[in-house]
Every structure is written in structure tokens, then in C-alpha cells.
Amino acid sequence: MTKKVNITTDAGADAMAVSEALSARIRLYRSQKKLSLDELSRRAGVSKGMLVEIEACRANPSIALLCRLAAAMGISVADIVNVASDPGVHLIQPEQIPVLWQGDHGGSARLLAGTSGPNMVELWQWQLFPGEIFTSPGHPQETTELLHVTAGTLLLTVNDDVFTLAAGYSAVAATDVPHSYACAGDTPLAFTMTVHENAR
């Protein structure tokens, strides 16, 4: 039985290719770090059974789960999805950019690029359609997100504080607490986001 933790890409062959790549890279990094399933489970706060399902490509990890696994292994999500940059210039072709979340009405989150290692910076492109919302339980301590709305209206909730950002507005948010992004209004929402995480 296939467990769906999150819809990670468009349906079909692309989704399977991304799932297989994620599974392979998680196995690779766990092996390189010499971590048993039990130890990674303990560090990430994820059940061993879920890790087995992910590594066997029978479960699709959510963005939040990818963040926890990456932090536990001392790498970045960009390392796992293979869009991390090495020193110098690293070009990423459009077809290499993965969709890591898909909303019920066609919205998406794409990890455009990121740096390697635990002190990481990531660049994301988000699109949400009316009625869509993405929720996160919170990232590791001292994670900061910079957001810029390019179209529509973003309803940003951080803990119990709610902020409405129209097109052209930007925000800086500490996201080591529960937070969410929602499309407010009747038009599609588009925003770019940079995530900075400090390893402790």
C-alpha cells in the first residue's frame, strides 16, 4: 500500500521520478553520514517505519519532513533534491527544478536553488490558487524567511499573528514556529521566498 505524506509533484511519470530521486538521495546521505535508520529516526523525530517507506519509495515526504531529515543529517533540502550549489557557479536547468508541494487546485512550491550544508539558504517560488493553504509546523530554531508577493494577496499566519500582504509587499518572518501561507481573495497568489537556516 502506498502512503501519501504529501503530493510532491504533478501526477504521473514526473512524480515517480522525483519520488525515486528523493528516496535514493536520502539513502545515499544516510549511508555517507553512517546513520542507522534508528539513529536518523531519533534525530529527526520521524518513525523508523516512515523512513523505511520513504527509502523504499512507497511514501512521499512533505516539505516539513524533508526539512527535519535534512537538519538531522546536517545537510540542506537542496542537497536532497539535488539543486544545491557548490562553490563557484552552479547552473540549474528549468527541468531540474522540482515541485515539492502541490495544492488541491493546482498551486505549487518549487525549490529553485539552494546552498549545501546545514547553514543553508534556499530560494523558492510559490503559487497558490483561491482556497489553497500551506501549513508548516515550524522549522529548526533561528530559521528566517524573506517573502515577496508578486501577484495576488498572501495571508501569512505566524503562530497566532495574521498578516495580509498585497502584491509588491515583502516580509521577514521567523518561522521556527507554526506558520502558514494562504491565497486571500479571488485571484491567484504568487510569491518568492528565501529561507535561511542557522545550524546550531
Please give the structural blueprint.
Blueprint: E1 3-4, H1 13-32, H2 37-44, H3 48-55, E2 59-60, H4 63-73, H5 77-81, E3 84-85, E4 99-102, E5 108-115, E6 120-128, E7 133-136, E8 143-151, E9 153-158, E10 161-166, E11 170-174, E12 179-184, E13 189-197
Parallel strand pairs: 1-2, 3-5
Antiparallel strand pairs: 4-5, 5-6, 6-13, 7-12, 8-11, 8-13, 9-10, 9-12
Shape: globular
Please report the number of helical segments.
Answer: 5
Provide mean pLDDT, rounded. Answer: 87
Under CATH, the topology of the largest domain can be stated as Jelly Rolls
Portion in helices? 25-40%
User: Radius of gyration over alpha carbons?
Assistant: 16 Å
Q: How far apart are the first and last residues' alpha carbons, in Å? A: 38 Å
* Number of E strands: 13
Which band does the percent of strand residues land in?
35-45%
Q: What is the annotated CATH architecture of the largest domain?
A: Sandwich
Instruction: Name the poorly predicted regions.
Output: 1-11
CATH class of the largest domain: Mainly Beta
Question: What would you call the structural class?
Answer: alpha+beta
The biggest beta sheet reads: 7 strands, mixed
For the record, the count of structural domains works out to 2
CATH H-level superfamily title of the largest domain: Jelly Rolls
Helix-strand pattern: EHHHEHHEEEEEEEEEEE
GO cellular component, one term: cytosol
Domain HTH cro/C1-type: 26-80
Pfam families: Cupin_2 (PF07883), HTH_3 (PF01381)
Keywords: DNA-binding, Transcription, Transcription regulation
Question: What can you tell me about this protein's structure?
Answer:
The protein has 200 residues and is α+β, with helices and mostly antiparallel strands. It has 2 domains: 3-85, lambda repressor-like DNA-binding domains (434 Repressor (Amino-terminal Domain)), CATH 1.10.260; 94-197, Jelly Rolls (Sandwich). It has 5 helices and 13 strands. It has helices at 13-32, 37-44, 48-55, 63-73, 77-81; strands spanning 3-4, 59-60, 84-85, 99-102, 108-115, 120-128, 133-136, 143-151, 153-158, 161-166, 170-174, 179-184, 189-197. Strands 3, 4, 5, 6, 8, 11 and 13 form a 7-stranded mixed β-sheet that branches. Strands 7-12-9-10 form a 4-stranded antiparallel β-sheet, with no helix packed on it. The radius of gyration is 16 Å and the shape is globular. Residues 1-11 have low confidence and may be disordered.
